[in-house]
Design goal:
The structure holds two protein chains of two kinds. By secondary structure, chain A is mostly helical. Chain A is built from 14 helices and no strands. Chain A has a single domain, classed as MetI-like fold. Chain A is 76% helix and 0% strand. In chain A, helix 1 crosses helix 13. By secondary structure, chain B is mainly α. Chain B is built from 13 helices and two strands; from the N terminus they run H-E-E-H-H-H-H-H-H-H-H-H-H-H-H. In chain B, strand 1 and strand 2 form a beta hairpin. The chains are: A mainly alpha, B mainly alpha. At the A-B interface, helix 1, helix 4, helix 5, helix 6 and helix 7 of A face helix 1, helix 4, helix 5, helix 6 and helix 7 of B.
């Protein structure tokens, strides 16, 4: 491997660049389309070369298309969901990993099993349950159902992390008189920060990108988060590709930002499971 | 994207040491376990049980459900749309699963070695993973338009006869819908395999090279066997993801035209919330659950073995 053939090296980079470009092509296309005018798209086709540059598409998607309200809704759902889920998951993971609780393995796997269920089997009962509770068509319903469904997975991952912390650390703290609450807040939680960072980045994108739960427990257009709102936009601006493209760009910006900011954590989070 | 994982990568020192948990249980600790469990029980387990119960009933969501025994399940046998949706789900599983596994592994091997520029290539392939499936669908819907890029390229290559309105023809709709899903999944599977490849001891390859093993032999005799545990994670991810797939199809075709891209998941949703046949929809959901059951159990058994290590 020490002697590299320069020609092969060039060939490698040409192939890899071409592949990357091909992969990014749909994204480039949608960004370009978002900045084109409606007339340009109508005349030259969605796949044609751009002949215009305007922010009209964004303006229309933002105001008429309701993207602004949808983004606010998304944040109102995503931030509480991520915080509540990770808070609940970390306390249960802490108790299950660090204490000899009866049936601890069964409880852990039961929680994980809930997350592995196909959501379809829950849709009808969850819709009815939220109606009975009077929270149907409210963002609260969307938050609680996503908290409930996600919990098992995050508990399982955090449990693996917390289980691996050496017992001596815990014993030292207990000898110093720390109770369970202090042990959790002062010792275990700080040591779990890398896992929490990775899971936060992942959870943010998953919750933000959700479609199925939103269209199951919400009805009003003006309460939809940005992912389901895109479908509304698609229906409202049929074949106005510049507006639809602008909406897609707006919807993608927050997750792309999280990904770029927390890239390392994000990939680490996805890879959590791959290595044994 | 489905949530599946095994133990974390970054373990603090002495990971295999047996921890000695404390015995005394305070009320606080019980609350730590019981509150999250109660939340999940209320929003997942209880609805799941209701879902199974509803599958034996006829229900419009307004009047009380009436018991029909196995009626919903026998109806499936004669429901041509169910047959089509089941077939499409299997095609989806094989194509989406097979191509994303092979493609993801190929990309991971191609971009495995650290060298200049490789981070950019990986990021390019990974970027679609952060988009929602709905945004992904709209991006591809623009590509698929009659005057979109795909038809333009075909026209430019002199292949006018290949041009289609991809999403609105029965013959192409299902495959046109799989492509965006694959575009997004390949990068995800690649990341899983990259992490797995990183874990293989380079000494194995050095020894094989000394012994005169070809690249292909090294791949089949070292790489594949060493990736065994990643393979099982990828397999679980793919099967569960395939059965859950909904967003792409719903955004692009809603299962049409004429159910030609119907999956069990979209058929279930339409039956429940458009036809308001909640009993039959619940039975369809139970079928999806049964199809996933084997993978779920395998995964849980694996998790059970690892959770106490």
């Amino acid at each position: 491997m020490s002697r590299r053939n320069p020609l092969r090296e060039v060939g490698y980079h040409v192939t890899a660049s071409a592949l990357s470009l091909l992969w990014l092509l749909p994204i480039i296309l949608v960004v370009v389309t978002a900045f084109r005018s409606f007339d340009d798209v109508a005349q030259n086709g969605v796949g044609g070369l751009p002949h215009s540059f305007t922010l009209d598409g964004f303006a229309q998607a933002w105001t008429d298309g309701g993207a602004a309200q949808a983004l606010i809704n998304s944040m109102l759902v995503t931030v509480p969901t991520v915080l509540i889920t990770l808070a609940l998951a970390s306390v249960s993971a802490f108790a299950l990993a660090r204490y000899d609780i009866p049936f601890r393995r069964t409880a852990l796997l039961l929680m994980l099993a809930g997350n592995l269920l196909p959501p379809q089997i829950l849709l009808v009962p969850v819709a009815k349950l939220s109606e009975v509770l009077g929270i149907y068509d409210s963002l609260t319903a969307l938050v609680v159902v996503q908290v409930g469904f996600g919990l098992g997975f995050y508990t399982f991952v955090l449990h693996g992390f917390m289980r691996a912390i050496p017992a001596e650390i815990q014993q030292a703290a207990v000898i110093d008189g720390a109770g369970a609450g202090q042990l959790f807040l002062r010792i275990i939680l700080p040591l779990t920060r890398p896992a929490l960072a990775a899971l936060s980045a992942l959870a943010f994108t998953w919750v933000f990108n959700d479609l199925l739960w939103a269209i199951t427990v919400l009805r009003s257009e003006d309460r939809m988060p940005v992912t389901p709102a895109l479908l509304g936009l698609q229906g409202q601006f049929v074949s106005q590709w510049n507006v639809i493209a602008a909406g897609s760009v707006i919807a993608a910006v927050p997750t792309v930002a999280v990904f770029l900011r927390f890239q390392r954590h994000f990939v680490a989070g996805l890879a959590l499971g791959a290595v044994k | 994207m489905v949530a599946l994982t095994a133990p974390p990568v970054e373990r603090p020192a002495e990971p295999r040491r047996r921890n000695k948990p404390s015995r005394r249980l305070s009320p606080l600790l019980l609350a730590f376990v019981l509150v999250p469990l109660a939340v999940e029980a209320f929003w997942v387990f209880w609805p799941a049980i209701q879902g199974v119960y509803l599958s034996f009933t006829n229900w419009d969501g307004i009047s009380p459900p009436t018991n029909v025994g196995l009626g919903n399940y026998t109806e499936m046998a004669t429901d041509p749309v169910f047959g089509k949706a089941l077939l499409d789900t299997v095609i989806w599983l094989v194509l989406f699963g097979g191509v994303s596994a092979v493609g993801g592994l190929a990309m991971a091997i191609f971009l495995q070695r650290e060298r200049r520029g490789v981070g950019i290539y990986r990021a390019a392939l990974f970027t679609p993973v952060v988009f929602s499936l709905v945004a992904t669908s709209l991006i591809w819907q623009a590509m698929y338009q009659p005057d979109g890029l795909i038809n333009n390229v075909l026209g430019g290559l002199g292949l006018e006869s290949w041009q289609r309105s991809w999403l609105s023809e029965s013959g192409t709709a299902l495959y046109a819908v799989i492509v965006p899903a694959l575009w997004r999944q390949v990068g995800y599977v690649m990341v899983l395999y990259l992490a797995g490849l990183k874990g293989i001891d380079p000494v194995l390859y050095e020894a094989a090279t000394v012994d005169g093993a070809s690249k292909w032999q090294q791949f089949t005799k070292i790489t594949l066997p060493q990736l065994k545990s990643v393979n099982s994670v990828v397999l679980s991810v793919i099967v569960i993801d395939s059965l859950r797939s909904f967003d792409v199809v719903w955004s692009l075709t809603k299962g049409g035209p004429f159910h030609s891209s119907e999956l069990l998941s979209t058929y279930m949703y339409a039956t429940a919330f458009q036809s308001l046949r909640l009993g039959y929809a619940s039975a369809l959901a139970v079928v999806i659950f049964l199809l996933a059951f084997g993978v779920i159990v395998t995964y849980l058994v694996r998790a059970f073995k690892e959770s106490d290590s």
